[in-house]
Design brief:
Pfam families: RecO_C (PF02565), RecO_N (PF11967). By secondary structure, the chain is of the alpha+beta class. It has seven helices and eight strands, in the order βββββααααβββααα.
Amino acid sequence: MLYRVEGIVIRSMDYGEGNKIITICTENSGKVGVLVRGAKKVKSRHAALTQLFTEAEYVFFRNGTGLGTLNSGEIMNSHHGLRQDLILAAYASYACELLDKVLQDEETGSFWYQQLKACLNALEEGKDPGIIINLYEMKILQTAGYGPELLSCISCGKDLSEDDHASVSPRLGGVLCRSCRHLDPPAMSLSPKSLKLLRLFARLDLRRLGHVDVKDETKAELKAVMRAFMDMQLGLKLKSQSFLDQMEKYGL
């Protein structure tokens, strides 16, 4: 059967001497794998379609639910700028690998595709990559069913204002009031500014993100909190995350 889909390449790997297999996140057909014959050859007309982050229309043959075979394609946005910048490429790779691990094969829903597309566009537009990724992680947690409770205490249900000295418990999945703080000794302190931004992330669509100016200390706190939520709730070991950690270690 012939399929025609819009998709973004989230994984690309060599297959045999001259071929590649790409995994694309599509708007309406979930995550699909496609064999691209001859993609590694110098004069291949399909080579550009296999580049990571490429957004294109793909036409492929597939029988049943197995691997498809590319027939043709037309690039809509190559995201060449992301691949040319080491830091941006690292963040974009993390966004793609994270979605690849969370999204099951054939799982449909344009939300995943639209959020990834918005994430890559925002990175290429020069918006703060740390804030973009934290917001993207929040969307991933929410759509995977692990969105944190940020408005009221996860234990007693008390409503918390942004001025309350709340703590956040990645293990329990939300914020804790002062009275319930003892229930999770490793819970992390959270400044009112960070709580406000986390609540904004929870209700904001990535496609509506403007330019956000956040102080370095607040960004560091947000990064630590979101990393803790991702590690505790999803428990994924990602190569791209390890690379980002190495970049931070060496001050890149």
